[in-house]
Amino acid sequence: MLLTKKMKSIISISFTLTILLMFGCNDISDTNPDANTDGRVIGTVHGVVTDANTNARLESVQVTTIGGGEILSTTTDNLGYYTFSNLSPGNYEISYSGKSDYAVARVTVAIPTLQQIGITDLPTEDDFYHSEQTDMDLYQLNAGLTGVVWAEQDDENTNLADLVTVIADFNNYDISPDEYYTTTDSIGGFTFENLPATPSVNLRSMPYNDGTYDYSVQTASTTLIPNGTASAGNIILVIAPAESFVVQNNFDNDDFGLTENLSLTFSKAMDTNSFDIGLSGSYGDVEFETTWSNDITLTIDPYVALQANSEYWLGLSGTSQDNNDYSESLSFETIEGIEFVWTNLERVDGVFDEFSVTSNIEIMFTMAVNLNNYNGYATLYDEDNALVSTSLSTDSTTLIIDPLYNLEPGQDYTLYYKVYSTIEADYDLGQFNFETGSDVTIPAQVTGFAVDMGDDWTADWNTTSITFKWNPIGNADGYSIYAKDNGDNTDLVRVGSFSTQDYNTEMSGTVNLSSYTQFDFYNDDGIQTPFTNGTEITFQIVPYNDAGEGTFSTAVTMQDDTAPSGSLTQLGSVSNSNGSLATNIAISFSANEYLDGTPPSFSFTEDGGDTTYVLPSSSVAFEWDTDMKGGVFTITVPANSDGSGDLFYIDGFKDSSGDTIDENISMPLY
Questions:
Q1: Helix or strand (DSSP H, E) at 20
Q2: Is-contact 296 220, C-beta < 8 A?
Q3: Does residue 455 sit in the same domain as residue 550?
Q4: How do residues 545-591 score in pLDDT, each as one tens digit?
Q5: Cα 478 from Cα 102, distance rounded (Å)
Q6: Residue that is last in its domain, among 138, 154, 182
Q7: 611 with 661, same domain?
């Protein structure tokens, strides 16, 4: 199946932000460098090394770390586990090697200083223990790749190109070396052996001259086969125009990583000393350094991390080595980063008053919150600008702020936050001004909460709009409907808010899950599918007023209880077999939703034609489509047999939630 299940990030909780809150939220630059701190940070780096293709744990891999003025080395045990302990603060480059049939991998890990964890202006003799888990996948050197390079002289003449340098580029992976070279033979063929068995590889040619014409750099990409040889097909070189151009870059998809280097490959060799380069964003110019490879590939390394959800502009001008000018302005967008979604400080849309004095403050974000980042903070001040002592924890995407004593009724508070995600350098910041509530009685529990979609209605795999009904509560100002599921969303998320209607004896409201992507089971099929693959979603309603939210109602749980449907279509025409050769009949089976992977049951019945012969079930083979919404039946009619008139039946197929089709599907052969 090509669809990818969303994975829930696991957040380890750090004491760091709590310390920042209890002792202040000054920036590191504002702290006292002369503070008396006798304690230290003691770091540990540990992890598991596995085969990237088989997930097998790798024993006896040599793991070496360089940093802190020393070189340390160890090997993985029989479970692939390694550890380094008693590390001083600093950056450590870790390499994974020692197995000749695997590519070397490298990664950088940071152990923070006392200053970075917020211990800067307080005396302490305590030691602080910091652990970094760094797992690593290694790629075996067992992939092969072949291809052919052609030189196109005009529309009618294309020649095999010999002695062309072809580069296999793995710079998207943390392996070394990240480039492999080969040269085409006399008939334009090229072969790579013992490449890292990564999922894909980028190819590019070097500039080429066949004695008549100069040819531009060409690029291509292809998949690799672990322990096999893949084909890159044909690479067609075209005559280089006078003006150079960019043939490949790594930022066209507008999902550029915040700490990545920009890479551009030009169509010909460039005069690198002639280039003027500028990089800027909405926050101003970005400083960087540049390197060139073969005078063709330009790498731009920003000194600072870029900002998520931002647009950047890259200006380039210079000349090629054959003295032709080049000038271009390019733009790109960075990846989606963490963003604020909801807070319980907001009683209703835009209203931040009457917050319960005994409640924890909760702020939900689009991504998992990372409390291990020492630049983050969440600070709470009262109306006299006094810092309120708090502690912090997370529940995946929700930051929980727990005041160490009850807040004061009817008082104004301000909360400032800067929250990091697990994406390096990605953060969101903001503030909330809110008022606590007075001693008003919270509303009672709602009764009669149920689905209001008709007696025969059932949820289907792609149901997103659901109408509920309930009995109103006299002192409620409004109602919120929350949802969670038995998959990634184990915490209740508010999916609907409705103002009170005192004049009604029964209320109703519609929840639309299409606005909440976290309830989409698959994230890359373009369809909102909340109930796919047996997902159960539980809904509850809670009333609220100035005193806060009441008790949650009895839960309503639903799942996909709607049977799938399907159809059969014969692919191509088939003549009557009854000859000396066997005949294959291809029949396409299509369903309206994802199926559970169990091939449908099938059979034949006689319905005219040759009544003396009915095809056996053994004559049928079935192959799933990649999207698991159907497949192709191949029916083989043996030589000297006539299957005409036979009816082909299928039944018993199930959707991914286990619902079975409630009727047979059939079609006649021929």
A1: helix 16-23
A2: no
A3: yes
A4: 877 899 999 999 999 999 999 999 988 876 655 566 788 889 999 99
A5: 61
A6: 138
A7: yes
